[in-house]
Amino acid sequence: MQTPSGHAVDSTTATRLVVLASGGGSNLAALLAAHDAPAFGGRVVGLVTDKPGAGALDLARDAGVASVVVAPADFEDRAAWDRGIADAVAVFRPDLVVLAGFMRILAPGFLDRFPGRVVNTHPALLPSFPGAHAVRDALAHGVTITGCTVHVVDAGVDTGPILAQAAVPVLADDDVASLHERIKVAERALLVETVGRIAREGLTVEDGRATIG
């Protein structure tokens, strides 16, 4: 596990956001573009990734946000990695953990460390098409409308309480790449809007339901 790098963690009273990402970081970029506005209410104080070469690391560095790589190859087994990534996130003292293109399932022990404080974005209108191939599955089923969902993470796969959704029409000539690209545009806007609301108004999770404000 690499040690955190980058600038000092922000010490303002804004809601502290820690982002988990595995790829290029387009959702992270959207959050970084929003978090300098005082009205947003939150600030990204750390990035944690499982991929040493993730493009999100460059975005974090350029924004002066501390980052840490928790690569599975650096741990003796999955249980050790689960503990390692939870410890890495805890260093940043998050008020909210945001999964933004993070491609690994988090263990129950991780969720227990941050109860009701982990949210994810998914490229489908849950509960339809959970899992890693949501866009492909939507096309295969011939739906005419799909979209994206921001939800609270629980121990299941994309089964947590839904916070917000946005619809995206499926065009006649869509393939996985073209449809996913349009979903990503809606996803970024929805994530920023929802995380901002949580930062300003708070999040309550009780009896399988989630409420902002």
TrEMBL record:
Keywords assigned: Purine biosynthesis, Transferase
PROSITE patterns xrefs: GART (PS00373)
Example GO BP: 'de novo' IMP biosynthetic process
Domain Formyl transferase N-terminal: 16-195
Pfam families found in the cross-reference section: Formyl_trans_N (PF00551)
Record: active site: 122 (proton donor)
Binding locations of (6R)-10-formyltetrahydrofolate: 78, 103-106, 120
EC number of the protein: 2.1.2.2
Catalytic activity: N(1)-(5-phospho-beta-D-ribosyl)glycinamide + (6R)-10-formyltetrahydrofolate = N(2)-formyl-N(1)-(5-phospho-beta-D-ribosyl)glycinamide + (6S)-5,6,7,8-tetrahydrofolate + H(+)
Site feature Raises pKa of active site His, where: 158
GO MF term list: phosphoribosylglycinamide formyltransferase activity
Any one cellular-component term (Gene Ontology): cytosol
Stored NCBIfam families: PurN (TIGR00639)
Protein name, UniProt field: Phosphoribosylglycinamide formyltransferase
